[in-house]
Amino acid sequence: MTLKLGVIGIGAIGKDHIKRIHHKLSRASIVAVSDVNREQTDAFLSQECISAMYFENGIDLIQSKDVDAILVTSWGPTHEEFVLAAVEAGKFVFCEKPLAVTAEGCRQIVDAEIKAGKRLVQVGFMRRFDRGYRQLRNVISEQEMGLPLILNCAHRAPAAPGFFGDMAISDSLVHEFDVLRWLLQDDYVSAQVIQPRGTRLCDEGLQDPHVILLRTRDGILINIESFVNCQYGYDIQCNIICESGTVSLPEPSSLQRRHNARLSTEIIVDWQERFVDAFDVELQEWIDATLAGEMNGPSAWDGYVVAVTADVCLKAKHSGAIEAIDIPEKPTFYQ
Ligand SMILES: NC(=O)C1=CN([C@@H]2O[C@H](COP(=O)(O)OP(=O)(O)OC[C@H]3O[C@@H](n4cnc5c(N)ncnc54)[C@H](O)[C@@H]3O)[C@@H](O)[C@H]2O)C=CC1
Ligand SMILES: O=C1[C@@H](O)[C@H](O)[C@@H](O)[C@H](O)[C@H]1O
Question: Which parts of the sequence belong to the Gfo/Idh/MocA-like oxidoreductase N-terminal domain (predicted)?
Answer without folding.
Answer: 4-125
